[in-house]
Specification:
The complex is a heterodimer of chains A (252) and B (313). Chain A has 13 helices and 9 strands. Chain A is α/β, with parallel strands linked by helices. Classes of the chains: A alpha/beta (252), B mainly alpha (313).
C-alpha cells in the first residue's frame, strides 16, 4: 500500500513535460493538464503564430533548445522531425530526461497516431479520444470534392499530396496541382478555381508576398473566397480539426 | 544618328510586342483583355520604363563624373534606393507605392551625395569606383539586415527581389508610381544633355559658355535619384544595364556623353526587355538581375582592364 502510494505520488510529481517545437507544442497544449506542461516554444505563445496561444499563457517559453528548458526540470521533452539534434539527445540522456521525437505526420492518420502517442506518454491514452473521434467524424462525412487552391502570400500554395491538401479534402476541397507549388496571377485569372482558400497569416505585416495578395485582380476573381487561419496550417497538426470544421461551415 | 534612333525605336516596339504576347494568350477575348490590361501591359511598361531610366541615368551620371563606370549600380544609388524603399515599406509601414518611391529616391539621393562627398565630382576612376562599391555593399547589407529584422517572417525572402530586381505581378498603381516620376525626371535630364556635353570639355569651358557646373551637378544627381528611386521602389535594384547601355550610346554618338543619353535610354529599354523575356522563357521564376549581371560582368571586366592604365588599378 505504501509502495503504491509512493508510486502514485512519484508519477504525479514526475510528470513535467516540455516541448521544443511549435508542432509538438500543439499536441501538449491540446492534451496536457495545467501543471503538467512546464515549457513550450516561444512561437506557441505568440498569437500571431499559434491558434492555441491562449492556452500557452503563463507557461514558460523556450527557443527550441534543450538548454532552455533544463531549469524547469522536465521529465519528458517532446520534439518533432528531429528537432534539437543529436546534442540535445545526448544532454537529455545524461540528465535522465526522456526525449521523444514525434514523427512528422505525412497523413491525417499520422496526426491521430501522434495524438494517441502523446496521450499515452502523458499516462492517459483516453485523453486523445475526443479529438480522434472528431477527426474520424470529419473523415467519415467528407463532402464531395470541389476544385480549390490554397493561397498564401506571393501565391504560395500546397502540393496535392501534402498533409495540408489532405486536410482540405476533409472539407471537400481538392487542391489543384500547380507548377512549383505556386499560383501565378495569370493562372488564377485564366483558370480560377471554384474555391480559393486564402491564408491571412501575418496579413497585417508588410512583405512582397502580402502585397501580392492585395493585387486588384485577386479581388475580382469569380472564385468563392474562404479564409484559412494560416497559423493552424503551419504544422497541419491536430489544431486543424476545429479549422476544418469551421471551413466546412463556411463553405456550406 | 536619327535613322539609327528610328530603327532602335522600331526594334523596341517589336520587342515590346513580343514581350507582351509571351507566353501565348488565351483565346477567350474577355479574359485576354483582362490579362493584357491588368498584367501584361503593366509589366511591359514597367520593364521599358526601368530600362530607359537605367540607360538615361547611367549616361547622365557617366557624363557628370566623366567616368565610363559611373552607373546607377556602381555609384551605389540603386542599392541606396532599395534601402530607402525597404526602410519606408517595412519599417515606417508605408503602403502607398508613391510614398515608397519617395523613400527610395531619398535613399538614392543620400547614396549619391555620400559618393560626392567621399570621392568628389571629378574624382579619379579608382576612387570613384571604390567609394561607390563601398556604398553599394553597405547599402546591400543594410537592406538585408533591415529585412531580416522586419516584423514579418517573410520579409527576409524579399531580399532577392530588392537586390536583384523583380517584375512579377505588379499592379497598375505600382507601375504608375514608377513610370510617372521616372518619365518626368528623365525628360528633365534629357534637357541637360547639351550642358553635360559642354561639361565634358572642362568645367571652365562649360562655365564660360554660361553653364553653372555646380548647379548642373546638383540637378543631375537629384533627377537621377528621383528616376532611379521610382523604378527601384517598384521593381528592386537591377544591375549592369545602367553600365552597358551608355557604353553603346556613347559609341553611337562618337563619345558625346550628353548626346549619348537618348540612344542609351533606347538600348537600356531593349536590354531589359530582352533580359525579362529570358526569365519568362524559363519554367521557374529567377530574379532578372541575375541575367543582367551574367551578361554585364564580362563587359564590366573588359572596361576595367581596358582602362587599367587610366584607372591605375
Amino acid at each position: 500500500m505504501a509502495a503504491f502510494a509512493s508510486l502514485l505520488a512519484g508519477s504525479v510529481a514526475a510528470l513535467r513535460v516540455a516541448s521544443l517545437n511549435l508542432c509538438s507544442d500543439e499536441y501538449l497544449l491540446l492534451l496536457a493538464r495545467p501543471g503538467e506542461l512546464v515549457s513550450v516554444s516561444k512561437l506557441a505563445a505568440d498569437p500571431r503564430d499559434s491558434v492555441l496561444a491562449r492556452r500557452a499563457a503563463g507557461v514558460p517559453t523556450n527557443r527550441g533548445r534543450i538548454e532552455d528548458v533544463l531549469a524547469e526540470r522536465p521529465t519528458l521533452v517532446l520534439t518533432m522531425g528531429g528537432g534539437g539534434g543529436r546534442a540535445s539527445a545526448a544532454i537529455a540522456g545524461r540528465l535522465g530526461i526522456r526525449l521523444v521525437d514525434l514523427p512528422q505526420p505525412a497523413t491525417v492518420g499520422d496526426v491521430a497516431a501522434n495524438l494517441r502517442r502523446v496521450a499515452g506518454l502523458l499516462g492517459e491514452p483516453r485523453r486523445a479520444e475526443p479529438l480522434v473521434t472528431r477527426l474520424r467524424g470529419l473523415a467519415a462525412t467528407a463532402p464531395a470534392s470541389r476544385d480549390a487552391i490554397w493561397l498564401g502570400g506571393g501565391g504560395r500554395s500546397l502540393a496535392p499530396t501534402s498533409l495540408g491538401a489532405q486536410w482540405m479534402a476533409l472539407a471537400g476541397l481538392r487542391q489543384r496541382s500547380l507548377p512549383g507549388g505556386r499560383a501565378s496571377l495569370e493562372t488564377l485569372a485564366v483558370t480560377p478555381p471554384a474555391v480559393l482558400l486564402i491564408s491571412h497569416y501575418r496579413a497585417g505585416q508588410v512583405s512582397q508576398e502580402q502585397r501580392w495578395l492585395a493585387h486588384p485582380l485577386i479581388a475580382r476573381l469569380p472564385s468563392r473566397r474562404i479564409a484559412a487561419d494560416g497559423r493552424a496550417w503551419t504544422c497541419a497538426g491536430p489544431a486543424m480539426i476545429p479549422e476544418i470544421e469551421r471551413i466546412r461551415k463556411d463553405t456550406q | 544618328m536619327k535613322r539609327a534612333l528610328l530603327l532602335g525605336l522600331l526594334l523596341l516596339l517589336a520587342l515590346a510586342a513580343l514581350h507582351l504576347l509571351t507566353p501565348a494568350l488565351p483565346a477567350d477575348p474577355a479574359l485576354r483583355g483582362m490579362l493584357l490590361t491588368e498584367l501584361r501591359l503593366p509589366r511591359t511598361m514597367l520593364v521599358v520604363a526601368y530600362g530607359t531610366t537605367l540607360g538615361l541615368t547611367g549616361a547622365a551620371l557617366q557624363a557628370l563624373f566623366a567616368n565610363p563606370l559611373a552607373s546607377p549600380d556602381i555609384t551605389g544609388s540603386s542599392s541606396g534606393a532599395a534601402l530607402g524603399a525597404v526602410g519606408g515599406a517595412y519599417w515606417l509601414g508605408l503602403t502607398e507605392p508613391l510614398a515608397i518611391a519617395v523613400c527610395a529616391a531619398g535613399g538614392a539621393l543620400a547614396a549619391l551625395a555620400f559618393l560626392l562627398t567621399l570621392a568628389g565630382r571629378r574624382a579619379d576612376g579608382t576612387t570613384l569606383l571604390l567609394a561607390g562599391l563601398g556604398i553599394s555593399l553597405a547599402c546591400g547589407a543594410a537592406t538585408s539586415l533591415a529585412l531580416a529584422l522586419a516584423p514579418s517572417p517573410f520579409a527576409f525572402y524579399d531580399a532577392y527581389g530588392w537586390l536583384f530586381g523583380d517584375f512579377t505581378d505588379r499592379s497598375l498603381a505600382q507601375v504608375a508610381a514608377a513610370i510617372v516620376p521616372a518619365t518626368v525626371a528623365g525628360l528633365l535630364l534629357l534637357r541637360r544633355a547639351h550642358a553635360l556635353d559642354m561639361l565634358a570639355l572642362g568645367e571652365d569651358v562649360a562655365a564660360s559658355l554660361g553653364h553653372r557646373p555646380r548647379r548642373l551637378a546638383v540637378e543631375v544627381v537629384a533627377l537621377a535619384a528621383v528616376a532611379i528611386g521610382a523604378c527601384v521602389a517598384v521593381a528592386g535594384a537591377v544591375g549592369f544595364v545602367g553600365l552597358i547601355a551608355p557604353f553603346a550610346g556613347r559609341a553611337a554618338t562618337r563619345g558625346h556623353p550628353g548626346r549619348a543619353m537618348l540612344p542609351s535610354a533606347l538600348v537600356g529599354a531593349l536590354l531589359l526587355l530582352l533580359a525579362d523575356l529570358a526569365t519568362r522563357g524559363l519554367d521557374r521564376p529567377i530574379p532578372l538581375g541575375v541575367i543582367t549581371a551574367l551578361v554585364g560582368t564580362p563587359l564590366f571586366l573588359w572596361l576595367i582592364t581596358h582602362q587599367r592604365r587610366g584607372l591605375a588599378l
